[in-house]
Amino acid sequence: MRPLPETRSLRPSPRFHKLELPSGPEDHPGPPMMRILQLNINHCEAAQDLLCDIISKLHIHVAILCEQYKNLAPPNTWLADADGQAAIWVHGGIPVQERPARVHPYFAWARIDGIFFFSVYVPPRLCEMEFSTLLANITEEARGRRPLVIVGDFNAWSTEWGCRETRPRASILLDSLALLDAVLLNTGDVPTFNGRQGSSIVDLTFVCETLTPRVKSWTVSGWYTHSDHQAIVFEIEDTRTSTRPSTRQV
């Protein structure tokens, strides 16, 4: 993957490579890891049902979702946007330390274990002006919140993350997230979307630059999701002294 032009502060970090994840967090001999999954469910009931099994088998702590089939009620720790297009599902008893005072359309966020997670879905029907306005709302909400993870289905195409062509949305996206000193983790050319009209890479993972040393792996998972999107799984090293509850069931 080519690096972004030097004039941009947002660029793929050369330290990241596509890595296969271990079978579970306990396989790590070092510090504990927070394991994150991102997936567009495509409003599919079967995909959301299957997600529960995937989360259990992969020992996921935080699931960052787009186009959920439905929002889940307590006792699930579930935070959603105003339109049922983006959600964050927290597992293993990890507390949510902060959440927005009011919900927003097309994105949700929460501070979990000291990290601010943003889940974003950008519908393809939005015009460029609406796309820019949405990103302005996201960057305004994220400003000053660190460390930061912004992931989702942006419906934006660029050769920078493995697409065959670059479209205007990509430049708007990169210019907006450059304001947050964001780094793109996507690497390689494995499609994250496979549909009747072809395949593409529209599911993207961004983190603030200061968080990159703690990201230990990133991969497009081969697990069957029953959605037309593949899951992305990555791990962040937990540098906090407190011990997080385990997601492993007994």
CATH level 1 class label: Alpha Beta
* Oligomeric state of this protein: single chain
Give average pLDDT, whole number: 87
Helix coverage percent = 10-25%
Number of helices: 3
- At the fold tier of CATH, the topology name is Deoxyribonuclease I, Chain A
Number of DSSP-assigned strands: 14
Please give the alpha-carbon distance between the first and last residues.
Answer: 42 Å
CATH architecture: 4-Layer Sandwich
Count of discrete structural domains: 1
Strand order of the largest sheet: 3-4-2-1-14-13
**Structural class designation:** alpha+beta
CATH superfamily: Endonuclease/exonuclease/phosphatase
Largest sheet: 6 strands, mixed
Using only C-alpha atoms, the radius of gyration works out to 17 Å
Order of helices and strands: EHEEEEEEHEHEEEEEE
Strand content: 25-35%
- The coarse silhouette is globular
Given as residue ranges, the uncertain stretches (5+ residues, pLDDT < 50) are 1-26, 245-250
Protein name: Endonuclease/exonuclease/phosphatase domain-containing protein
InterPro entries: Endo/exonu/phosph_ase_sf, Endo/exonuclease/phosphatase
GO molecular function: catalytic activity
Outline of this structure?
The chain is α+β, with helices and mostly antiparallel strands. It has one domain (33-237): Deoxyribonuclease I, Chain A (4-Layer Sandwich). The chain has helices at 45-58, 128-142, 168-178, and strands spanning 33-40, 62-66, 77-80, 86-90, 96-98, 107-112, 115-121, 148-153, 182-184, 193-195, 198-200, 203-208, 215-220, 232-237.
Characterise this structure.
- By secondary structure, the chain is of the alpha+beta class.
- The protein has one domain: Deoxyribonuclease I, Chain A, CATH 3.60.10.10.
- Helices cover about 15% and strands about 30% of the residues.
- The chain is built from three helices and 14 strands.
- It has a six-stranded mixed β-sheet with strand order 3-4-2-1-14-13, with no helix packed on it. Strands 5-6-7-8-12-9 form a six-stranded mixed β-sheet, with no helix packed on it. Strands 10-11 form a two-stranded antiparallel sheet.
- Helix 2 packs parallel to helix 3.
- The longest helix has 15 residues.
- It is globular, with a radius of gyration of 17 Å.
- InterPro entries: Endo/exonu/phosph_ase_sf (IPR036691), Endo/exonuclease/phosphatase (IPR005135).
- This is Endonuclease/exonuclease/phosphatase domain-containing protein.
- It comes from Trichogramma brassicae.
- One of its GO terms (molecular function) is catalytic activity.
